[in-house]
Design brief:
Helix 5 runs antiparallel to helix 15. The protein has helices spanning 14-22, 24-46, 50-77, 86-103, 112-138, 141-144, 148-180, 193-219, 236-247, 250-280, 285-313, 315-329, 332-338, 348-387, 392-421, 434-459, 466-483. It is mostly helical. The model is unreliable at 1-9 (pLDDT under 50).
Length: 486
Amino acid sequence: MNAPVIATVKKPSIWTKLAYGFGSVAYGVKDNGLKYFLLLFYAQVVGLDARLVSFAILIALVADAISDPIVGYWSDNFRSKWGRRHPFMYAAAIPLCVSYYFIWTPPQGWSDQALFLYIVVLAIIIRTFITFYETPSTALAPELTDDYDERSNILSFRYFFAWFGGNSMAVVLFALIFPAFVTVAITNGQFNLEAYKFFGFLGAVIMFTAIMISALGTHHYIPRLRKPPPKADKSLKMIFNEIYSTVSSKSFFALFFASLLGFTASGLAAGLAFYFTTYFWDFTNEQIFGITLGVFLSAFIGGLLAPVVTRKLGKKRGAIIIGLIAFIGSPLPIFLRLIGVMPENGTPEVFWIVLVTNTIDVGLIICYQILAASMMADLVEQGEAKTGNRSEGLFFAAATFMRKFGEGFGIVIAGFVITAVGLAAGSKQGEVPEDTLWFLGAVYVPVILGIWLTMVAIIGFYRIDRTTHEATVRELAEKENAARPT
């Protein structure tokens, strides 16, 4: 007689959650650097045309589109004494960190075309190896627990550390690195090439440390993780058919395209963030440091709020409500400036308005991202019930792709916006005409609002809730129970 059917619900220890979450510091550092500073660095410090920087990023995104599903499928089916995921995590550490350092140390005296190729090559290497690390690492979440609520809890650790780690680099940059590289000739360290070299070195060291701590900290969990499916000889066509069959559902496509739009908006906002604080609001480095410091509080807000929203509202409904509040409020200070309501630059009121709105909005955006990631984790059981294959790597390869491609494409848009409004390469703070800055805000607000509101509308087509998820988990448990010897 078969044993009673129960769904497998695992709750990892706090130490496992911390190790799993801390690994996202590597992605956060990479993401913060490439999203917030790469365009500014090459366009305003190195002096390369912003369109060339954007085009280089775009080429790297195309390479990403190829590598993400390959790595996801590979890690789902990989066999080793260290399981399916950990060999990829260990292998990515050194090449990722070395290439990250070199993208901040461009050769001197090279032509624009040579620098363009330099960025292309390094951006592809960075994005490929962050896929080798981030996709298998994040894919551990649905393996660590089947519980609807606990997944939001685990992913809160992941997103908290990603934002905390990435933001720490920005804080260190403005609080310590930029001031240390002020010279007689360069009165603002933000425009000193040497500052970014040190920034790249420090970021590489922190990324390597985070990867190793997370990989080693979850290594003991390998015997309890899912095993790869039986070996089978498959043609390339069969593999791609299997990939499509696994992920093809209305809920997946709704979440995929909604998240792609959301990360595009995030990339656009990040790519222009320091253009707004430096040129539009004319903040000092100390004020920019204060706003950046506020993101630490945002990480706590998002990390603590997401599990509560999951329990009280459910993931989909919570994502829609939180998203609408956050995404409508985010460009509000810029809109108020455009219609002449905001106080003049240089007044304390401007700083505090931007600080408070940015801190709250980023916290809500982090909460939204956690909910969306947890919704992706719930698709794993749906795919397994449909195909019989457990494919966490594939789903989180899609999540990694959405995040990298969306944010990268947003930065591409930012580069073209900078050129379109006439903000010249190498412009110093206080030298940009008021009409150019007004035009920058007038383009930014409707574009980012349009992207975000479309995203919220699309996510309404996602169909998995607590009831359907728990029913699927029970169904899978029944099949597993029936397959056991009596």
